[in-house]
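tool=predict chain=A
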Amino acid sequence: MLLTSSLSAAVAVAQVGKRGNANAGWLPICGQVPRFCDQITGALIAGLVALILYVFLLIFSIHSVVDPFLLRKS
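tool=predict ok
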């Protein structure tokens, strides 16, 4: 679950960087510092790929553990 929470935090930072927050007085910075937004976009893509790989490995591991019990004849 740490992976999903870190991905959520990265999305939140990206939203604040792109749109700002009028209530807190934070201005959008993507127009002034485009490299920041490029790095955030790269981090989001890497996080999403990592999340997909994690889910794939989790499903594969569960299948490896449960499969011998399903093939056993009663």
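Residues 2-73 form one domain. The chain is about 75% helix and 0% strand.
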